[in-house]
User: Which sequence fits this backbone?
């Protein structure tokens, strides 16, 4: 298989072109995942751009993004494949007069009657694909096993049809909010990437690229204030997406610099708990 | 290379990271795709393949530092500065000195007076000059740490000596003043805070440089294997409550939050699943309407087990305070899993603190109030379990009912007072369960003035809770 990326730096530059600012760790792991043909397990606090990373990589590669949103109760028929039994019934009824049972039997378990679900779709696709398995920690431990075959061998076994192997190895991202420990078997098959709140300089860059109309000075101030707020002991520290929302708010208000008063009035964009807002407001005003 | 690598893997396992054979192989594959001279990329390649839990990252980093960043000819230690790559830095430093003070940069670093050194450092911190800071860290260590080859002293000792001489706290004040002057006038509170954060950040970076430098020198002196052993730190979940340092406490606190989320999710799931109930006739008939009256989809009544009511009685005297705090934090963070939580704290007197938690959603504030406001001293402020239990029984004993689970936290070091173990016996007769959690290692129980055995006979179980891992296991069992 051709290598889609030249070097770590090229990943980084490429991601920058599609407005995703990666740090060395992120770019390095994406590069390795492509080279080794391994899935990436992305973990980290909510709102730090885990899902966005998969989207951006798809955009960078010009690949189709196939997304499987995980939830409790997700099963085979929703993740992998399902037999289109209505169509199968019709097929049997249409052939009621013919008596060759074996013909029909062969017939109704063909790929024509197979409904592909995201995982199978990703495998069978002929174009390049980025597969995003979102919030994998929401499924039960038992359901995780569904993913194992596809993640390590890039194939799906269907009892009636045999094994379907991938035409091309998709780049797979699994995201987790870490609400439970994932099984060893799953972790072992993946590269692990922890995405944390960005360093101040990177956050400033992110604000500058994501928010049109923001001045350099305002972005700098925003990044500094957010860093300061993250150091306070809060229930939920502001995420990157909240930082961006806040920056947008400030730009909409027509500000090109922010003082303590204005910051306090718009804190509710940044923080989502009343106790956090009160605490941060107090910290910002009298230090 | 292979030897070094397998040594590295073994050290990771020794530090408690579960590295499997396949992960080891993956790591080997990974580094074949990475240019070896790129240290950062090398580190992330190893990290992504070997470390699958964020809490383990710090341990990984330490081991990595020892094994990989410090080898190679350019790191050979010379007594005087001014060889190889250090030359460039020295040149820079002299330039900085010229700019900063205007006197001609005469000679190398060694000839600088401490005051001059401090000035350069201050300039470096003001401008956030990374390279200069690194060079200064080297110089500072060489000058102040007083390291001697073969001396069996831990790295923290050298770190302490170096930092004491540099007086970084004073440096922060000076930096703040300087930046005030630069702006020309008073800063607003917000600006001041932001500036301070910025400088704190830089000073922190400088400290890390110093630490790395000390480690580098120690490794050169003693060898990586020996060094890794002395640097080995327990993972956050294995840190003992009773002996945690301040840094470790901070880390513990950080790892408590994801842990509670995990625990709450797990408990809620446990409650929902795995229970079969009898047929729910009404519900089945209602759903049968969709199928023309045919009960095609049977519905069942899932029993909803009552949530336990929890009463926590915690010793908060000095020796076990940290443990009590963590347990209370954990319990309140998952209080949704209990129908009611009441908490009492004592030293030799006892006081109810449930209100503190009710009034605020911020648990750490409630803990702070416990430490400052709770009325727990009766005579002399030495633990007296007997008296505390007796008062508890008199005041609140009648409120214990068959739904309540009572948790007793403490090391049962009673300072040779009367035990009043009959109270526990009475409580047990009224309550559903009584458990005792002891933060001391099991081998210390019932030695000296510890009478945990005497209380223990009246409880449903005494559990050793030395670290987060044990605490988590217990709480899961409880709910």
Assistant:
């Amino acid at each position: 298989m051709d290598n889609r990326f030249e070097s770590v730096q090229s990943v980084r530059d490429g991601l920058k072109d599609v407005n995703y600012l990666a740090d060395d760790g992120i770019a390095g792991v994406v590069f390795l995942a492509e080279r080794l043909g391994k899935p990436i397990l992305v973990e980290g606090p909510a709102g730090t751009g885990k899902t966005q990373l998969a989207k951006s990589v798809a955009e960078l590669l010009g690949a189709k993004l196939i997304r499987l949103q995980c939830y409790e109760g997700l099963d085979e028929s929703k993740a992998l494949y399902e037999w289109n039994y209505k169509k199968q019934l019709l097929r049997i009824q249409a052939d009621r007069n013919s008596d060759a049972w074996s013909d029909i039997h062969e017939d109704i378990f063909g790929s024509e009657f197979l409904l592909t679900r995201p995982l199978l779709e990703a495998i069978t696709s002929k174009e390049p694909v980025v597969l995003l398995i979102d919030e994998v920690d929401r499924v039960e431990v038992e359901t995780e096993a569904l993913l194992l075959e596809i993640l390590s061998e890039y194939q799906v076994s269907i009892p009636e049809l045999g094994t379907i192997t991938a035409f091309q190895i998709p780049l797979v991202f699994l995201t987790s909010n870490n609400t439970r420990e994932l099984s060893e078997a799953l972790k072992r098959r993946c590269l692990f990437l922890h995405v944390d709140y960005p360093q101040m300089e990177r956050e400033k860059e992110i604000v500058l690229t994501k928010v049109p109309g923001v001045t350099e000075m305002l972005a700098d101030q925003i990044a500094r204030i957010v860093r300061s707020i993250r150091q306070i002991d809060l229930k939920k520290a502001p995420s990157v997406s909240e930082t961006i929302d806040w920056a947008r708010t400030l730009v909409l208000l027509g500000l090109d610099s922010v003082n303590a008063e204005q910051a306090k009035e718009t804190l509710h964009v940044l923080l989502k708990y009343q106790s956090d807002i009160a605490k941060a407001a107090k910290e910002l005003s009298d230090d | 290379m292979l030897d070094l690598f397998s040594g590295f893997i073994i050290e990771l396992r020794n530090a408690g990271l579960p590295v499997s054979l396949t992960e080891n192989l993956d790591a080997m594959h990974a580094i074949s795709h990475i240019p070896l001279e790129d240290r950062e990329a090398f580190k992330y390649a190893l990290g992504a393949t070997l470390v699958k839990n964020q809490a383990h990252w710090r341990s990984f980093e330490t081991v990595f530092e020892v094994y990989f960043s410090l080898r190679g000819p350019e790191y050979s230690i010379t007594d005087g500065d001014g060889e190889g790559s250090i030359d460039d830095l020295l040149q820079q430093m002299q330039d900085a000195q010229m700019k900063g003070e205007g006197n001609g940069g005469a000679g190398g670093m060694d000839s600088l007076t401490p005051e001059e050194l401090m000035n350069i450092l201050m300039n470096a911190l003001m401008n956030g000059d990374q390279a200069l800071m690194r060079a200064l860290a080297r110089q500072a260590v060489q000058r102040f740490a007083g390291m001697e080859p073969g001396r069996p002293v831990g790295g923290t000792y050298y770190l302490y000596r170096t930092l004491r001489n540099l007086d970084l706290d004073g440096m922060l004040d000076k930096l703040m003043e300087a930046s005030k002057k630069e702006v020309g006038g008073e800063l607003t509170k917000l600006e001041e805070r932001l500036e301070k954060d910025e400088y704190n950040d830089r000073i922190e970076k400088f400290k890390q440089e110093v630490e790395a430098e000390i480690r580098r020198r120690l490794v050169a002196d003693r060898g990586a294997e020996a060094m890794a052993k002395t640097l080995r730190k327990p993972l956050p979940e294995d840190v003992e409550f009773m002996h945690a340092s301040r840094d470790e406490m901070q880390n513990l606190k950080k790892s408590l939050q994801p842990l509670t989320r995990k625990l709450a999710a797990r408990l809620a799931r446990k409650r929902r699943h795995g229970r079969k109930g009898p047929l729910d006739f009404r519900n089945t008939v209602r759903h049968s309407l969709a199928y023309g009256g045919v009960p095609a989809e049977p519905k069942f009544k899932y029993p909803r087990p009552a949530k336990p009511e929890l009463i926590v009685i915690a010793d908060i005297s000095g020796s076990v305070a940290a443990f009590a705090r963590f347990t209370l934090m954990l319990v309140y963070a998952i209080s949704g899993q209990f129908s009611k939580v009441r908490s009492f704290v004592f030293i030799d007197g006892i006081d109810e603190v449930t209100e503190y938690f009710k009034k605020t959603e911020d648990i750490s504030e409630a803990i702070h109030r416990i430490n400052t406001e709770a009325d727990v001293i009766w005579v002399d402020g030495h633990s007296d379990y007997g008296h505390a239990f007796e008062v508890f029984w008199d005041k609140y004993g009648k409120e214990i009912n068959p739904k309540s689970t009572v948790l007793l936290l403490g090391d049962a070091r009673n300072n040779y007072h009367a035990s009043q173990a009959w109270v526990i016996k009475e409580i047990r007769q009224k309550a559903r369960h009584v458990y005792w959690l002891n933060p001391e290692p099991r081998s210390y129980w019932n030695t000296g003035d510890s009478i945990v055995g005497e209380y223990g006979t009246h409880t449903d179980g005494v559990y050793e809770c030395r670290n987060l891992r044990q605490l988590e296991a217990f709480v899961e069992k409880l709910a």
Notes: Chain A touches chain B through 49 residues (CB under 8 Å).
